[in-house]
């Protein structure tokens, strides 16, 4: 393995490849920072440029854009409460609270360092165990995915700061919004009201931007104190000793979780940051800090997300099967170069396989180098007077929403979602569980129905398979804990004592 | 309304690029040389009714760049994904027939949808004028590597005795209809398990979760080569040089499985014939360039250039053939 990694670094550290890794990471960061503009659109735009490049250079640059965008998205989520993707929703929960308290610098630094640490570890995992881990991914069939999603939904109620009842209501509302679109089994249109744009469902990014970012602007404009809070406070840029103490172990836990979940091609990476956040809330000794800027609730999910983004390469590199739309574009880029990704690629194109793995680490290092000095600059951005800030945010949100499908419809979705987000916030309902329900609900339904089709309607399929059975057992225990009144009372007592 | 749409569509294609440039992070070195020169002419817009990265997108982008000089104007690719291609195709049908808009359609958007969807917002042939057929892709029947069936005949025998399951890339797709044709013709007991795209369907076939899957061959070629999937037949006229062990559909005893996916350009009905001929010639010339050909072959396409008139005749045959298959299988989609 060391020999292989040496070959990889030999490839990745060539001047040309270093340059394109840097360029990719830089472009990725830039588009990640702009709300709504995702890596998919950028990579498809830049794809023709890669035709003339060496295959390894092309893929290194595209990979750089991919994880650059992962990182850049956190910046906007922290500073402006504007998540551009699923993981950003979690980042925004604690990260934006930290920014409001003048700890934006620390939040950005923790995100950068956490991401780098996670990238380093999961790159090593991909290098050491990538091919072997493929069988893990393949052992996850529809029943296992269903059980995983069910567990995710049950535990997602932990995301709520306040009333469990309201959290459950938000998850259910999210699931209902997620059901809009074409039924995959029959092709029937559900709740589309004859609008063709709804045939593929409500767009997640448009919904998230509206619920979080735009409704935040409405709230800020109504309540001037809020906006003063965002702008005026500026603390130390670096992390304090105490923040390190909380962030570092959270980062390690997040990395482990993200690496494992990222291997699963069916949306595993998207729930890794949610999962990490839930974990941190569950095991923390200071739950009262959560929702008010707990750094461990930021560092954990950031690490989990980045680790997941790296290990998502495993199914791509070993099976040639893309696990998301960005990966699909990379397969396209390789195929155009005449390279068919798959197990044989490791033997047939060792310099490509190991060069990419080494470049992942190099790319993560570059992200750290690009972003740490920028922390100060980004924080300065918060000093821009709000009257200039919010119109530009709105413009970028509209551009971003439009560019999702090149359709004005998604801008309307975003506007509708911002109204919904405002009302929900006023009612004291949190929007994060809604988004989790929106993402997990339809996936859960899809896998449930597929599992039932395959088992010919036999529900035992979920219990007979060990992985699915144990995941469902954990979900059942979590559910019991949540609704059992005696345990709840004890928990409340414990909280009260701690607070006192 | 019409003008506003055109204005916006012209706006957005450069949008991401503009946004990149606005951040000041992308140097001018990346800008393509042809861009500045061609600014005066109205661009030709190719609507791709699919998200970036798929086969239609690869095809459109490979041609767009090369057809530019011959047409003397820029060619922009406009991704209008959604509803299995219907949104983009409908947008093309509603565009002005002035020779500035064409759409890259395929066997679904411009043939099978007519029979399958009662409420299709356009007519697959009456709303369009054929421009050029570009390429085809073969379908193949694949089974997991550890499948007990070594041949198509063995799989059919198994399906008559016991229950089989088959994956499809999407309900109502060619993958679904062709497999269901096999099921109906051979009277198999098989359950359809639809997926959300070719990648998850291939994954579950590799994992042995389903018994068989009819896929576009390029999407599974790598897995077949690496022995993770076994192809029991390919719907090609002759065996492929790279896969001499895979029998053709006819050799495997099921010639009716030789149904190809195809890709071609269409203009809105009423587009002047002169404009259509000019675009067709430029696109087919670009398609014939050695570099483009090599790139598209690598992506798994079989080039099949046809001029407007023969392409129109081909489309009529295909509409009839798919109508027959849809009638046999009873697969329908709500529009």
From TrEMBL, chain A:
Keywords: Membrane, Transmembrane, Transmembrane helix. It comes from the Bacteria. The chain crosses the membrane at residues 12-34, 46-69, 75-93, 105-127, 147-180, 201-222, 316-340, 352-376, 388-405, 462-483. Pfam families: TctA. Residues 18-436 form the DUF112 domain. The keyword ATP-binding does not apply. This is DUF112 domain-containing protein.
